[in-house]
Specification:
Helix content: 55-70%
Distance between the termini: 28 Å
Structural class: mainly alpha
Order of helices and strands: HHH
Largest sheet: none
Shape: globular
Number of strands: 0
Radius of gyration: 13 Å
Oligomer: single chain
Strand content: under 5%
């Protein structure tokens, strides 16, 4: 089983149950980082223990690597 298959078959529904709709929650995270002016120094972000990845997707969309 690939990582994607494992996520699609097992983890996705669990994370959605925990947090709600991924796209909606990711957008909330992105809005938070924008309000916090986290994008002033767009360079590299490290998300340790990223779980469902809401923060890292938001930071990537703001230009972080």
């Amino acid at each position: 089983m690939t990582v994607k298959e494992h996520y699609d078959n097992h983890l996705a529904s669990f994370y959605e149950w925990m947090t709600g709709d991924f796209e909606t929650k990711q957008k909330e995270q992105q809005d938070f980082f924008e309000r916090a002016e986290s994008n002033r120094c767009k360079q590299i972000a490290i998300d340790l223990g990223s779980g469902h990845g809401l923060s890292i997707y938001a930071l990537a969309r703001l230009g972080f690597k």
